[in-house]
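Membrane protein structure dump, as promised
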Amino acid sequence: MLEAFLLVSIGMITAVMANLGIAVFNDGLRPIIPENMEGRMSRRELGMTAFAMSFGLVIGFGIPISISGSILLIHSILLGTDIIGLAFRRGKLTTVMAGILGGLYGAGIYFGLQAVVKAFQMLPLNFIDGFNKIGEPVVVSFMAFPAIAIALQFTVKKGILAFAVAALARQLVVYSNTAKLIKINGTAVVLSPEGIALIVGMAFLIGFAMKEKSEDQNLSALASMFTDRVARIKKYFWVIMISGGLVAAATNLLLIAGDPISLNLLSSGKITEGGIAALAKAIGFVPLIASTAIATGVFGPVGFTFVFGVGIFSPNPWLAAIFGALVIFLEIQTLSKLAKFLDRYPGIRASGENIRTAMTRVLEIALLIGGANAANAIVPGFGFFGIAGFYLLNEAAGRPIVRMAVGPVGAIAVGIIGNILVLLGLFTPIK
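C-alpha cells r here:
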C-alpha cells in the first residue's frame, strides 16, 4: 500500500506542477514552457509538443527498461505526467483534473507493469530471465561517458587520456578486490571498479572544464538576467520539496530509480554502487538542469536528481523523504550562486549539453548490446538476427524509435516471436 500511495502521490503532484509550469522532467520542454506562459505559444501547441517529445521515450525506453530491471525507471512516470499536466489548460478545475489523471497514471504504471510481468511469466516461453540481460553492458559501459564528454568538448586526445586513466583505475580496483589489499579491522573492503572509474573520469571532466574561466569582470550576467525567473522557482519551493521527498522515499524502497545504470545496479543488489552511480550522474547533470532552470523559471520535479542518491543511502523511507525534501530546498536556495559560478566557469556550463550527449551515446550502444544478448538468450541464434534487422530497419525508416529503445523493444519483440514459434512447434525452449 505504501508503494502504491507513493506512486499515486508522485503522479498527482508532478502532473500539477507541469500544469502550472512550476517543474517538468523533460529537459527539452523546460525552455518551451515560458513561450506558452508569455503568450507566444498556445496551450494546444505546448501539449502536442510535450506528447511528441515524451511519449516515445515512455513507451520505448522507460517501460521496457523498467520491465527488464523490475524497478520503475523514473522516466516512465515523470515523462507521462509532463504530458498529462501540459495537455490541460491552467485553471482551478483543469489543474485538479490534471492531478487526478496524474495519480491514476501513477497507479496504472504500478499495477500495470506488475500485470505485464505476470503475463509474461505465464507464456510458453518465459523470456523475463533472458530479458534481464539487457542491463548487463549498461553498468560497465557507463563509466566511459566522462571521457566521451571530454572528447566532445575539449579534444579527442584529452578524452583518450581520461578514458585510459579511468580504465587503469578500474583494473587496479579489480586487482585490489581480488588480492584483498584494502582491509578495515581485518575485514577486506570491496570497492566498485565501475564506480571508481566513473569518479576518476568525472574528476578529469570537472578539472578540464574549470580551466576555462571567464575574462569578463561582470560575473553575474546569468543571475542578473533571470532574477525574476529564479524568484518564481523559489516561490514554489515547498511544492517541489514535497515531490523530492516522495521520490527519495520511493527510491529508498527500491521502487524507482533515476537512470538505467543505477537501476541495474540496484536490481542486482549492488546498493552502494547504485548510489554512487546516481550521485555521479547528478553531478554531471547539474550544469544542464541549473542553466535551463535559471533561464526559464521552470525547475525539475526531482531537482538536480541528487534525491535518488539520497534515497538510496538513507536508512529508511521516512528519513529519505525528509532528506530528499531538504536537498531540494538547498538546491533551490543556491540557484543564484550557481548562476554566478556558471558565469565564472563557462566550461562547466557548456559541459551540461556534452554530458547529456555522451550519456545518450553510451546508453544507445550499451542497450543495443544488452538487447542483442537478451534476445539471443531468449531465442538462440535468431535473437542476434532479429536485433540486427530491427536496428537497421529502424535506421532505414528514419528512426521512428529512438536508438536507446531499439535494444529493449527489439528483445520484447523477439520474445513475442519466440512464443509464436513455440506455439507453432518451430522452436523448443532450452530448459
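The CA atoms of residues 266 and 309 lie 11 Å apart.
lmk if u need the other ones
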